[in-house]
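Narrative summary of target 7.
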Amino acid sequence: QVQLVESGGGLVQPGGSLRLSCVASGTFFNLYNVRWHRQAPGKQRELVASITSGGSTNYADSVKGRFTISRDNAKNTVYLQMNSLKIEDTAEYYCNANRGILGYWGQGTQVTVSS
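Modeled conformation, tokenized:
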């Protein structure tokens, strides 16, 4: 099995930056596809960014050009670099690792963008 722990969230002003980390424990992490999701109060969970085992990336239109997802398999870690943050980016951010029928979720880290 895989356990995921997110970190790096916090309070930041509009236009600021944060880097989220998702650290995995377990084996064969390099074979997993990983996604970052976010959920704000009263809103549905949305997919923010994804990265495949091969390193291919995709982004939601709302964050394209501002966020960058990357992975360091040697450290069992996936990152989400968030720049030019907006108030509407405020949410709980979760990482999700998938391989076939296997799926794992972290407990989330809060990002608050406020002036």
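The mean pLDDT is 96.
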